[in-house]
Amino acid sequence: VFTEEDKYGLYSNLLFKYFLAEGVVCGHDLFVASAKEHPDNIIKDLPAPLLDDTYRNELGEEATAVKSEDFQDSMKIAWRYQNLPKMEASPTTSTKFGHYYDVSKTMSPELFQSIKWHSFYLPEELSLQPKMKTCHMNSAYARLLQSIQRIIYQEGFDGSDPQKKQKNILRIGIQSLGSMLWGDDICSSDTPEDIHSLTKFLYVLRGLLRKSLSACIITVPAHLIQNKAIMERVTNLSDTVVGLESFIGSERETNPLYKDYHGLVHVHQIPRLNSLICDVSDTKDLAFRLKRKLFTIERLHLPPDLSDTVSRTSKQDLAESAKLLSSGCGAMAIGKKHLDF
Amino acid sequence: QGKFTLLRDTRTDGSFLVHHFLSFYLRAGCKVCFVALLQSFSHYNIVAQKLGVSLTAAKERGQLVFLEGLKSCLDLLFGEEEEQSGQPSPLQFISESTSNLKALFDFVRTSLTPAGGDSWKGPVLLVDDLSVLLSLGATPVAVLDFIHYCRVSVCSQMKGNIVVLVHSNEDSEDEENELVVNSLCHHSDLILWVEGLATGFCKDVHGQIKIIRRVSLELMAEQDHVQIYQYKIQDKNVTFFARGLSAAVL
């Protein structure tokens, strides 16, 4: 899953943590990589799940049952809301998928101590020498790839250890890839030194994910990348691409159209795996909002047209935003009507 | 025979055409070399089974030579030294400083050169998708050279066919990619151009396909023959219909 960060990184960080938190609750292994925040702190800061016990047990069992039926060799970079049930779930699984989280509380330590997690904090890894051929890739990326490959191999996520009966999934989260902290200058310069590092990294990562039982979320400060060609290539190399546009600091903040929301969700691409078709749905206009406890993504609906002046500007804006929202993707869109985390 | 077909997609995913051609040529009894750069073998296998062809069986009887780009790249980067004493990896341009795709071309040529005792009808090269090579560090010139060598070898010498998928966008800022795509368009015998609808997303019509047949390469000859249809993709099939005549409308 490839997430384009919003300008101030607030909301994409939230999505990132949700992905990891879901992993903790489902009992998956985690791999957290970051160049700016120590993974230990990220883990401590995951939102607490809203559970009631019976609900959790039921889901926990189903989740493990579903995961152990299989995937001979490969898993995918998957958008967990949609596609995991589609590809894996047996027809008897309940329609509820995933868990709800309370963003005002952090996860209790017992929860994440019950799972196995690995971290990659770039400043700490710089001292070690990479063993793999770097093939002209940025050395930070090379180290990260090596680390991921090592974990996949050692922990048997690629099926290399047939003795291991309990198959589990590795959830990988990589924060702010492509930013200057990773040593890549695509965010700071129009003609970067090596425009292929990021795309090569993604290609190798894709290979690793395809041959193991893992899923990965990556957040990228896309608004900082000057060279748009890179973003196009990155989109082609990813399974799912979601952009978050927050209204902070933009003129949309005061636009009455968007007063209920904090930002828009742009789904640029959804996976088309193992099938000719992909899961296309009705709506493409999604917006998100952060309430005190919950982060929700909803179908964007407009406030009713009440007065003359309001309707004039909003109609124009509406036409413009409708153009922005529904052009581009062609046949791609996702979105259940109301996705709650 | 000897045709170069370009599959081009804009604002949508044209990979259903790749699946079609793969099963089409396999069913026709041709020897196929499939350079699959973007997806894993099992993905193609599962879709091909829905279309009635088994890729594993085809591989076993030697009809299909499958280059799984993702796997090959991993072997190249993480493989042990001893394993590489044999053939050089077809994707070795990723780790070498030379950016030519000669190793890849050699791989294609050896796979499609008829071996003694082969009874397959014409060879076919299928590539999904060419734009990935640019992302991996190949220069546009290297990519075009590779295609040129393949055409000489597969189309002219072996009288086979080539089908290549590329992505493109009208307002794309990826100049290298646009350069490759435009150049290939000029050299193709047949272009299948798949686009998302200009009016945006629609549930019943997934897009439109433009079929452009190159009639003649002479300057003053007739225009290329263009046909436009719309399509809807289903689980095992794709239905095509004239514009505006989708089943949902009629």
Automatic annotation (TrEMBL), chain A:
It comes from the Eukaryota. Pathway: tRNA modification; 5-methoxycarbonylmethyl-2-thiouridine-tRNA biosynthesis. Keywords: Cytoplasm, Nucleus, tRNA processing. One of its GO terms (biological process) is tRNA wobble uridine modification. It is found in: Cytoplasm; Nucleus. Transmembrane segments: none annotated. InterPro entries: Elongator_complex_protein_4, P-loop_NTPase. Gene3D superfamilies: P-loop containing nucleotide triphosphate hydrolases. GO terms for cellular component: cytoplasm; elongator holoenzyme complex; transcription elongation factor complex. CDD domains: Elp4 (cd19494). Belongs to the ELP4 family. Component of the elongator complex which is required for multiple tRNA modifications, including mcm5U (5-methoxycarbonylmethyl uridine), mcm5s2U (5-methoxycarbonylmethyl-2-thiouridine), and ncm5U (5-carbamoylmethyl uridine). The elongator complex catalyzes the formation of carboxymethyluridine in the wobble base at position 34 in tRNAs. This is Elongator complex protein 4. It comes from Himantopus himantopus. The gene is Elp4.
From TrEMBL, chain B:
One of its GO terms (cellular component) is cytoplasm. The keyword Cytoplasm applies. The keyword Cytoplasm applies. It holds the Pfam family ELP6. Keywords: Cytoplasm, Nucleus, tRNA processing. Pathway: tRNA modification; 5-methoxycarbonylmethyl-2-thiouridine-tRNA biosynthesis. Transmembrane segments: none annotated. One of its GO terms (biological process) is tRNA wobble uridine modification. It is found in: Cytoplasm; Nucleus. Belongs to the ELP6 family. This is Elongator complex protein 6. It comes from Himantopus himantopus. The lineage of its organism: Eukaryota, Metazoa, Chordata, Craniata, Vertebrata.
